[in-house]
Specification:
The complex is a heterodimer of chains A (263) and B (92).
Chain A lengths: L3 H19 L3 H56 L3 H74 L3 H33 L12 H37 L3 H16 L1
Chain B lengths: L1 E4 L3 E5 L4 H17 L2 H18 E3 L10 E3 L6 H9 L7
Parallel strand pairs in B: 1-4
Antiparallel strand pairs in B: 1-2, 2-3
Helix pairs in contact in B: 1-2
The chains are: A mainly alpha (263), B alpha+beta (92).
């Protein structure tokens, strides 16, 4: 089918979906729709109640008319018994007029009863539909809530949700900060090592001082070595004199001396 | 199938009757496309009569979604064309 009927139907459905999509929360739309249905149901029920009230009123009127009719009949009988045919005729003619009214009211009563039955049936059907809608609405709402939660979980896992985005940003910022501090520390070390910056702790030394220290340290070693050599040289001369040892001993000392030198 | 006649209400039409109504519906679309106002009015009137005759009216309190929707009997060709061409009855 591709005629006007189908196309108009499609337009309406598309519009209805669009209208639903635009709503902030479809659950609210469903609740609103349910509310409207309840109002409609309330109207139908009021309608049923109005018709029932009218029917009751008619029944009361009918009872009244029936009573009056009986009264006229009795009055006519009494008038005849008293020989007043004229009065009897009047009473009966009034009763006849009442009977016409009764017939009209009975017809109205039957019609109202029919309407009341139809409305009651419609009200019951509507009630069933509203109940069914409520169940469906709750199911849809639950499904929607579940789907929403699922989406949020999915987003959280993929890190695209707003909250996770914030966390990601915070981590990134912390990492950036750490990197920045590390780079700064590295730069300071370099600057202090090069002597461009003074080390307030006094532990670090510049290259020049380090070289001087190294050189002075080296000369100390040399000086110590010379001193020790001198001691040894002085000590062996004394031994030779005191011990009276052969020249071999002195030679041995001499032979050992280079070993000291090498050390 | 439930058919809504705009401005009138809903009618439940037995699916077996849809074939004959479809023929008129296609004619109506052809009239809209060709811009034949006389043919449009004639066919729309025949289609609406056909739907009313074939269907049973739904009570106003009924909450059935319509499967098909028809323009009101007094709709003009231009109105229907506007409905079908731009974005429909409900703005947005």
């Amino acid at each position: 089918m591709s005629g006007v009927m189908k196309r108009m139907g499609m337009i309406f459905r598309a519009k209805a979906n669009k209208a639903l999509d635009r709503a902030e929360d479809p659950r609210e739309t469903l609740d609103y729709s349910y509310q409207k249905q309840l109002e409609l149901l309330q109207k139908v029920r009021r309608g049923v109640a109005d018709v029932a009230t009218s029917r009751k009123r008619l029944e009361l009127q009918l009872n009244e008319l029936q009573k009056k009719s009986t009264t006229y009949e009795e009055q006519g009988r009494k008038a005849l018994a008293l020989g007043r045919e004229d009065l009897a005729r009047e009473a009966l003619s009034r009763r006849a007029a009442l009977q016409q009214q009764v017939t009209d009211l009975q017809a109205q009563h039957t019609q109202l009863q029919g309407e009341e039955e139809k409305l009651t049936l419609a009200s019951q059907r509507l009630q069933a539909k509203v109940d069914a809608f409520r169940t469906k609405k709750e199911t849809i709402k639950a499904t929607y809530t579940a789907a929403q939660a699922q989406t949020q979980i999915g987003e959280a896992f993929s890190g695209i949700s707003e909250e996770m985005g914030d966390v990601g940003m915070a981590i990134q910022r912390a990492e950036d900060k750490t990197e920045q501090l590390r780079a700064r520390a590295g730069a300071l070390d370099e600057l202090m090592a090069s002597g461009a910056l003074d080390d307030p702790s006094g532990l670090a030394k510049d290259d020049l001082q380090a070289e001087l220290d190294r050189l002075s340290g080296g000369s100390d070693v040399e000086l110590e070595l010379q001193r020790m050599k001198a001691e040894l040289a002085g000590g062996s001369g004394q031994q030779a004199i005191e011990g009276g040892q052969s020249g071999q001993a002195a030679q041995g000392q001499q032979q050992e001396a280079p070993r000291f030198d090498k050390q | 199938m439930i058919v809504r006649i705009m401005g009138e209400g809903q009618v439940r039409v037995d699916d077996s009757r849809l074939t004959e109504l479809n023929a008129l519906d296609d004619e109506l679309l052809a009239a809209v496309r060709s811009g034949d106002e006389a043919a449009f009015q004639r066919t729309l009137s025949a289609l609406l009569d056909g739907v009313r005759a074939a269907g049973e009216p739904l009570p106003d309190a009924s909450l059935e979604p319509s499967g098909l929707i028809l323009p009101a009997g007094d709709a003009t060709l231009e109105e229907v064309r506007a409905l079908l061409d731009d974005d429909g009855l409900i703005p947005g």
